[in-house]
């Protein structure tokens, strides 16, 4: 298979249903999702290098998320009415379940925390910030063109998931989160949901 086609040499690229400029907001949106996926791959690699047995559950979950991010990018590349979307409300619900489950593994914090800790947690915080940027790009796209609304919701939940998973990764390695010293208390105590890890 030949990798290069030369079709993009004039600054355009193919989407599902046509061709657009490479700086089109649709391309920027799914390109940023692809970037997030690459950072997830880096986080998985760090887990494999650290201890694949200790982080087996996180590796499996993140590998599933990589598949879903690929689907998200595909959905964002669809011009109106060209094919059914792949990301659904079920994917969003699943992320919420994962957030609740991994939150059970973290100590309570009252203030904002600084990104970092272990190298794995730091990588997951990078995933979080890129997912947030992808969400912003999708919001811009949605203001101009039709999109899969569940893809936008998915990216919103995904950044929450990465935040909690980063904290769980720190806790798993007995590394304390560093709270933002000059901040006030912003998190209120809430009863935690009893949900098993799946």
TrEMBL record:
<dbReference type="InterPro" id="IPR016030">
    <property type="entry name" value="CblAdoTrfase-like"/>
</dbReference>
<keyword id="KW-0547">Nucleotide-binding</keyword>
<keyword id="KW-0067">ATP-binding</keyword>
<comment type="pathway">
    <text>Cofactor biosynthesis; adenosylcobalamin biosynthesis; adenosylcobalamin from cob(II)yrinate a,c-diamide: step 2/7.</text>
</comment>
<keyword id="KW-0808">Transferase</keyword>
<dbReference type="Pfam" id="PF01923">
    <property type="entry name" value="Cob_adeno_trans"/>
</dbReference>
<dbReference type="GO" id="GO:0008817">
    <property type="term" value="F:corrinoid adenosyltransferase activity"/>
</dbReference>
<keyword id="KW-0169">Cobalamin biosynthesis</keyword>
<feature type="domain" description="Cobalamin adenosyltransferase-like">
    <location>
        <begin position="3"/>
        <end position="168"/>
    </location>
</feature>
<dbReference type="InterPro" id="IPR036451">
    <property type="entry name" value="CblAdoTrfase-like_sf"/>
</dbReference>
<comment type="similarity">
    <text>Belongs to the Cob(I)alamin adenosyltransferase family.</text>
</comment>
<protein>
    <recommendedName>
        <fullName>Corrinoid adenosyltransferase</fullName>
        <ecNumber>2.5.1.17</ecNumber>
    </recommendedName>
</protein>
<dbReference type="InterPro" id="IPR029499">
    <property type="entry name" value="PduO-typ"/>
</dbReference>
């Amino acid at each position: 298979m030949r990798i290069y086609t030369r079709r993009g040499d004039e600054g355009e690229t193919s989407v599902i249903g046509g061709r657009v400029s490479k700086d089109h907001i649709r391309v920027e949106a799914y390109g940023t999702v692809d970037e997030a996926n690459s950072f997830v791959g880096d986080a998985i690699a760090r887990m494999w290098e650290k201890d694949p047995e200790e982080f087996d559950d996180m590796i499996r979950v993140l590998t599933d998320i990589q598949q879903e991010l690929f689907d998200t990018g595909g959905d964002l590349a669809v011009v109106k009415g060209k094919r059914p979307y792949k990301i659904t409300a079920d994917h969003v619900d699943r992320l919420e379940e994962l957030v609740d489950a991994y939150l059970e593994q973290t100590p309570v914090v009252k203030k904002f925390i600084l990104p970092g800790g272990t190298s794995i947690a730091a990588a997951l915080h990078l995933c979080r910030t890129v997912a947030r940027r992808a969400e912003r790009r999708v919001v811009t796209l949605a203001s101009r063109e039709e999109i899969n609304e569940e893809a936008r919701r998915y990216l919103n939940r995904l950044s929450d998931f990465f935040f909690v998973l980063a904290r769980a990764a720190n806790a798993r390695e007995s590394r304390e989160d560093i709270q933002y010293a000059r901040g006030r208390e912003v998190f209120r105590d809430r009863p935690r949901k009893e949900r098993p890890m799946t």
